Amino acid sequence: MRIIDRIAALRSALAEPRRRGQAVALVPTMGYLHEGHLQLADEARRHAAVVVMSVFVNPMQFGPHEDYTRYPRDLEGDAMKAERRGVDVLFAPPVEEMYAGDRTVVVTPLSLADRWEGAARPGHFTGVLTIVSKLFNIVQPTVAVFGQKDIQQATLIRSLTRELDFGVRIVVAPTVRERDGLAMSSRNAYLSNEERKRALVLYRTLRGIADAFDGGQYDAVELEQLGWEILATEPEVQVDYLAIVDPTRLEPVAVAEQGTIVAIAARAGTTRLIDNVILGGT
């Protein structure tokens, strides 16, 4: 595996496989890799001969009161994990390589980013879509793989790709979970043992709603009420939102159906976690 930290060097490294007609897959990450990230690399391998994983903690997607400086980092460990998983190129640029000089252009989403994560983290998705656009232009992948856990992000990136005519196929891989159901996340490292136990209420809530749907309950108000009842069993977990939405515009629905998304965001202690399920699916 090659570790590259400069844009020009990455383009040079990809020139030969691209000349041979080999497909290139991109797996964007912010590092501190866990099994969820590594399964994204596995998925990328199913679609391409060359797998590029980026590790870049993007300052532009953190708000002024968020955890950019304390976001966990372990590039040496990330490199070992990525190499063992068969990643071909690890792209780990410094901030000054990705954001040289004063910014004069960003990619700002419209109404799709107004709700849920966009409302809780103003400006977050401008940072996400700007860095993803840059990575698409730098790597020029055939396919890019993202995780379902960040469902609003994945939905926006699909829109970005379609509306700005990026020639990239977007693959959204299922959320990878711990044995107890907690969605894998780099931020789980912040949780104390007690906070982690409390955080399991997120998955219990999602599974409770999904089970009710599978049992024939389609009224979104009833499903949401059930969710709030489960969440109330852990009053110290502070919920930002519980949303039952359509998969395209992420607007609330009155009647749930196959493919409807149930998304949740909450804080266990000071750690903010997100999760979701797709009704009738995963």
What would your notes on this structure say?
The protein is built from 10 helices and 9 strands. Helix 9 runs antiparallel to helix 10. The chain has a 6-stranded parallel beta sheet, sandwiched between helices. Strands 7-8-9 form a 3-stranded antiparallel beta sheet. The chain is an alpha/beta fold. The two termini are 32 Å apart. It has 2 domains: 172 residues, Rossmann fold, CATH 3.40.50; 93 residues, Pantoate--beta-alanine Ligase, Chain: A,domain 2 (2-Layer Sandwich), CATH 3.30.1300.10.
Brief descriptors of the model:
Rossmann fold, 38% helix, 9 strands, Pantoate--beta-alanine Ligase, Chain: A,domain 2, single chain, 18% strand, 3-stranded antiparallel beta sheet, 6-stranded parallel beta sheet
Topology of helices and strands:
Layout: E1 2-4, H1 7-19, E2 24-29, H2 35-47, E3 50-55, H3 75-84, E4 89-91, H4 95-98, H5 117-120, H6 124-139, E5 143-147, H7 151-163, E6 169-173, H8 193-199, H9 201-214, H10 220-231, E7 238-245, E8 261-268, E9 271-278
Parallel strand pairs: 1-4, 2-3, 2-5, 3-4, 5-6
Antiparallel strand pairs: 7-8, 8-9
Helix pairs in contact: 6-7, 9-10
Strand content: 15-25%
Q: From the coordinates shown, what is the CATH architecture of the largest domain?
A: 3-Layer(aba) Sandwich
CATH class of the largest domain: Alpha Beta
Q: Which word captures the global form?
A: globular
Number of strands: 9
- Total number of helices: 10
**Strand pairing plus helix content: what structural class?**
alpha/beta
